[in-house]
Amino acid sequence: MTFDFYDQTVVITGGTRGIGRATAEAFLSAGADVICLYGGDEAAAEDMRACHESAGGLRIECLDVADGAAVQAFWRRLEDEDVRPQILVNNAGIRRDAVLAMMPEEDWRRVIDVNLTGAYLMSKYAVQGMSNRRYGRIVNITSPSGQLGFEGQANYAASKAGMVALTKSLSREVARRNVTVNCVSPGFIDTDFIRDLPDDQAARYKATVPVKRFGKASEVASAILFLASRESAYINGAMLEVTGGL
Ligand code: NDP
């Protein structure tokens, strides 16, 4: 399936590495203007800038999605510049794993703040414009951890389960305005996010995946573009699993 996003602007949080970067590159190839937000890894942002500066259509900004004032200022700036995104991908995510009894409160709060509150903040401002213009697509990235729970991931799993609930609730609120809200649940995807796994643990996880390999970021990007396309108009409040059958 080829997608056409000419004349559309996409905002992607966590858009300079991993799944977010692959998604940004797929949108750029499909003709969209893309705004990538990132948390602070300047080297990754610079690398992406260098790879795409000649193509045009890409803007990269550092923005902590958990910072309410900064998020509001970002959306105000877009409005002042007459930039009106049709698509938001809430992809930024972090892990700070520890068994719950040993989990510092700071790590509980930061994971919820970035993964869940960040999506709330970004969506809050995005849907205002989308609702007024009677068109929009929001795609949220959740995780099987949010459905199953994983040892050492109470904070992460709670944030990702919350993402599904946020998706379903918001999808009901804005459906009549022609705005859809869905989520994608990637399985084990080969990005920096899971590269800290010890080899034996990675091998054990791989063995649990029916297709017997980790996924590629580009394979998640395809699902995101589908849900962000005009063709997916009747899919709302759904969760699309991209897990190799996990
Ligand atoms: P990466 O670690 O490769 O990339 C994470 C991205 O999020 C980076 O661009 C990072 O920016 C950004 N980010 C982190 N914190 C913030 C913040 N406070 N504000 C703005 N941006 C921030 O992760 P993946 O690409 O693998 O993961 C993307 C999403 O997919 C996450 O939500 C993750 O939970 C989810 N996921 C991933 C899976 C996997 O196996 N990889 C499995 C299931 C879900 P910077 O570069 O500046 O740090």
Structure description:
With 246 residues, this protein is an alpha/beta fold. Helix content is 46%, strand content 15%. It contains eight helices and seven strands, in the order βαβαβαβαβααβααβ. A seven-stranded parallel sheet has the order 3-2-1-4-5-6-7, with helices on both faces. β2, α2 and β3 form a beta-alpha-beta unit. The mean pLDDT is 97. The site of NADPH dihydro-nicotinamide-adenine-dinucleotide phosphate (NDP) has 31 residues, from α1 and β2.
Bound molecules: NADPH dihydro-nicotinamide-adenine-dinucleotide phosphate
Major beta-sheet overview: 7 strands, parallel
Q: Which stretches of 5+ consecutive residues score pLDDT under 50?
A: none
Number of helices: 8
Widest sheet: strand order? Answer: 3-2-1-4-5-6-7
According to DSSP, the number of beta strands is: 7
Radius of gyration: 17 Å
Binned strand content: 15-25%
Measured between the Cα atoms of the first and last residue, the distance is: 24 Å
Helix content: 40-55%
Secondary-structure-derived class = alpha/beta
Mean pLDDT: 97
Overall body shape: globular
Order of helices and strands: EHEHEHEHEHHEHHE
Short description:
The chain is α/β, with parallel strands linked by helices.
List the helices and strands and how they pair.
Blueprint (H helix, E strand, L loop, with lengths): L8 E5 L4 H12 L3 E6 L3 H11 L5 E5 L5 H13 L6 E4 L14 H29 L2 E6 L2 H5 L5 H21 L4 E8 L12 H10 L8 H12 L10 E4 L4
Parallel strand pairs: 1-2, 1-4, 2-3, 4-5, 5-6, 6-7
Bound molecules: NADPH dihydro-nicotinamide-adenine-dinucleotide phosphate.
